[in-house]
Amino acid sequence: MSLDAKNVLRIAFAAVVVVCGSLSAMPAAAGEVIFEEDFENGADKWKPTDASAWEVKKTDKGSFLSLTKDSTYSPPHTSPLNISWLQDVKLGDFEVTLKVRSTTPDYGHRDLCFFLGYQDPANFYYCHLSKAMDDRANQIFVVNDAPRTKISEKTTEGVPWDDEWHTVKIVRKLSDGLIEVYWDDMDNPIMVAHDKTHGAGLFGVGSFDDTGDFDDITIKSLEVKSSGTSTGRRRGRLFGRRRSR
Known about the structure:
There is one protein chain. The chain is mainly beta. About 10% of the residues lie in helices and about 40% in strands. The protein has one domain: Sandwich (Jelly Rolls), CATH 2.60.120. The strands form two sheets. Strands 1, 3, 4, 6, 11, 12, 13, 14 and 16 form a nine-stranded antiparallel sheet that branches. The chain has a seven-stranded antiparallel sheet with strand order 2-5-15-7-8-9-10, with no helix packed on it.
């Protein structure tokens, strides 16, 4: 190959590198999907507090992540034991929608939990969806180097858990500390809180006491970024096929 031809190839390769680098640094627009998961290829992106309590179950309708028993885990302060954290996706302003199903025999405080703003095992938020409401159930909580503290401004008398799949949506905005929780009705939140204790952090799923299933997780950015500013996030991709539950 001639020297001129080699130079042309070097220039072309450099241009490709520049273009690809620019694309990877492009900001996520508000409403843009930044992560999707349906567990068709496993749960390698998730880190549980006790791996033996979780498994990916495969059915003729597809796969889902299942919490099958109580975790062997001792948190530094009173807070849920059963958690699986989504790794390497640090979220600020975001909306997550997912399918959930309780697999615990019915009783008064049947629950599942959704976690956000994780900084470390002693600092995060969680939304506790329970069949009955009291100061320790069916509330939004903050864990801040101390046992969980209720921060809900609005909640309901309880979530009507049964053995079917339901849709949950969580919204978080850092500017005013907003946390909203939606159950099946995606227009009207069942829980609302405002708290600025923790900033951007990891998202997770799990429960305080009970077993359950999780699937079809979609996370959207709600951040408005100026041109040329990176979100600093690693984007996930959809594993396998999507399906309705």
